[in-house]
Amino acid sequence: MRHQRLLSLTALLLCAPALASTAPASAAPQSTTPATPTTRGPLRILLTNDDGYDAPGIRTAFARLTAAGHDVTIVAPLTNQSGTGTKVLSGPSVTVRHPEPKVWAVDGTPGDSVAFGLAEVFAGHAPDLVVSGTNFGPNVAGLATHSGTVGGAVAAVENGVPAIALSTGGLSVPDPVTTVNAMGPTLDFAVKLIDRLRSRARSGPLLPQGVGLNVNHPVVGADGKGRAAGVSATFQDPQTLLEPDFTDAGDGTWKVAFKVALRPAARGGDVEAVSAGRIAVSPMNADWNTGPVDRALASALVAGLRP
After folding, report:
1. Percent of the chain's residues with pLDDT above 70
2. What is the pTM for the complete model shown?
3. Which pLDDT band, with edges at 50, 70 and 90, does 166 fall under?
4. CA atoms of 199 and 134, how far apart (whole Å)
5. Contact 111, 152 (CB under 8 A)
6. How far apart are the first and last CA of the chain?
7. CA 261 to CA 146: how far, in whole Å?
8. For an engineered disulfide with 294, which of 206, 210, 246, 290 has Cβ 3.0 to 4.6 Å away?
9. Residue 183: closest CA among 231, 136, 232
């Protein structure tokens, strides 16, 4: 099944010792074709997010990836677009600002930002990689399905550009100080992961066609600056995590609240890894295909049916 193939890919990426050092010493535009990466020289990276172009996570990512020698350009939403998933605008126009060199702010979703970046900012010469994040808070289990951070990466993958979604956070309500602090270790790991992709790519693409990576880094330590316990190749846990609660206000409106409703983690899933203080790296694709077994089930289901 495709799920197994994708997970095997991530396991292969993580099996060598280069990433093991992350553990503590103890304890839609037209399709584009990315430039062929090399093992030397900087990668051209389009950096986006869903928290907004000036959020701490994307600025930390810009600084760390630039310091690692990459050529980074921010093309991200003008305002916070958390929870927008893969949404793209369908209006006749979009406002775009260019407030500083290497920074573009698009008044739309992460998908809109990536679309504008590929079509205009990187016109004719697609980036080697799209990095989305790092997000404030986790994008595991059902959260990933509706995440604008993941949506930005999906927009890249469906246009033929390799992509990594980065998120920082545990499974409780994110604490501002510790989560921002944990963005440092998140980007330390991201730099190592990108180096791994480069070294394995040789003269080929950074990732197989149509495949992206959803990376979730836990918050470790009282100050959030601790190192993760290790790295796990995972899949998206099928649970939803958030449970909505609606209260009738009596005037035709309903007040909406959410609570974390954590069920037992699926073995090998992203929730299990993050709960154990490990970095979860989940492969993903940009479509909803579930594999040949489920297609066979659907075929049996519709057999004999007529309009």
Report:
1. 87
2. 0.89
3. very high
4. 23
5. yes
6. 31
7. 16
8. 290
9. 136
Q: Do the beta carbons of residue 134 and residue 57 sit within 8 Å?
A: yes
Helix orientation angle between 2-14 and 176-201, rounded to the nearest 10 degrees: 90
For residue range 51-107, list pLDDT tens digits in order: 999 999 999 999 999 999 999 999 999 999 999 999 998 778 999 999 999 999 999
Phi, psi of 151 (to 5 degrees): -60, -40
Amino acid at 139: N
If DSSP codes are grouped into helix, strand and coil, which group holds residue 95? coil
CB 45 within 8 A of CB 129: yes
Tokens of 90: 């369908």
189 has a pLDDT exceeding 50: yes
Q: What percentage of the chain has pLDDT greater than the value 90?
A: 76
| CA torsion through residues 194, 200, 204, 207, sign | negative
Check whether the bond before 134 is cis (ω within 30° of 0).
Answer: yes
Strand order in the sheet with 129-136: 96-100, 103-106, 71-77, 44-48, 129-136, 163-168, 211-217, 279-285, 231-233
Report all structural domains of the chain as residue ranges with CATH numbers, in order of start: 2-302 (3.40.1210.10)
Q: Residue 284, Cβ neighbours under 10 Å: how many?
A: 20
Tokens of 146: 């509706």
**By three-state DSSP, how is residue 43 classified?**
coil
Across-strand partners of 168?
Answer: 136, 217
Record the tokens describing residue 95, joined without a space.
């406002």
Half-sphere exposure of 209 (CA within 13 A, CB side): 5
